[in-house]
Amino acid sequence: MTETTIQQFQLRLPSDLKQSIEKEAELNNRSINAQILFMLQNYEENNGRIHFLSKAVVNRLERFQKNNNYSSQIEAIEEILNDTLQRKDDAYDILNDLYNAFKVEKNLRILARDILSNHLLVKNILIEDNNFIEFTLADGSQGKMLKDGKTLYKYSGSSSYTIHKQPNYNHK
Fold first, then answer.
1. pTM for this model (two decimals)
2. Which helix (H) or strand (E) holds 18?
3. 3-state secondary structure at position 77
4. For the chain, what percent of residues have pLDDT higher than 90?
5. Which residues contact 167 (CB under 8 A, 6 or more apart)?
6. Which of 48, 58, 64, 95 could form a disulfide with 151, with the two C-beta atoms 3.0–4.6 Å apart?
7. In the predicted model, what is the mean pLDDT of residues 144-162?
8. What are the tens digits of pLDDT across the range 59-76?
9. Are 149 and 99 in contact (CB under 8 A)?
10. Contact 52/24 with Cβ under 8 angstroms?
11. What integer best gives the mean pLDDT of the chain?
12. What is the pLDDT of residue 133?
């Protein structure tokens, strides 16, 4: 029988990570210390990943990954999150995406292909000789981007467009 020496040391964690570990520890009826030990001891068993998800969710994620031929869990998670977030989008959100992409890519056809054509809620796309692109969502709302990057929004049931004001982003 080998003797195990316990070493004590102070660990600094960002508050959001600490809260996540506390939540997982509570779900597993463990102390925070026991939860961290459990996660570290299972690090190699989990292919070098520390999971903050329950075993059941990890198993579902692995099935989703395998069934959809994703090369990694990260790729599978990105797809799930993208689909989930798209279902919450409205025309205003999509116009923000178009506006931000327009800063780099000025070709409206490419923007329509890259942003609109794969979006779950976009039901119709109209491209007018690279002068504008217009899209309609499942709820009937519409968005329009002109060749100069100006964006317009139309509520479902409305007869006219209003100017879409882009959010001000403060990058620090």
1. 0.59
2. helix 15-27
3. helix
4. 38
5. 96
6. 95
7. 90
8. 888 899 999 998 888 888
9. yes
10. yes
11. 85
12. 96
User: How many angstroms separate the Cα of 115 from the Cα of each of 86, 100, 138?
Assistant: 11, 11, 16
In this structure, are residues 154 and 162 in contact, taking their beta carbons and an 8 Å threshold? yes
Give per-residue pLDDT as tens, 78-124.
889 888 888 888 898 999 999 999 999 999 999 999 999 989 999 99
Neighbours of 18 (CB within 10 A): 13
- Name which of 115, 93, 92, 89 is nearest 104 in CA terms: 115
What is the rounded CA–CA span in Å between residue 142 and residue 154? 5
Residue 134 structure tokens = 């217009």
pLDDT interval class at 46 (50, 70, 90): low
Token pair belonging to 115: 């942003």
DSSP per residue, 88-146 = H--HHHHHHHHHHHHTT---HHHHIIIIITT-TTEEEEEEETTTEEEEEETTS-EEEEE
Q: For residue 80, give the amino acid letter.
A: I
Two structure tokens written together for 101: 């992409």
Strand-pair category, 132-137 with 122-128: antiparallel
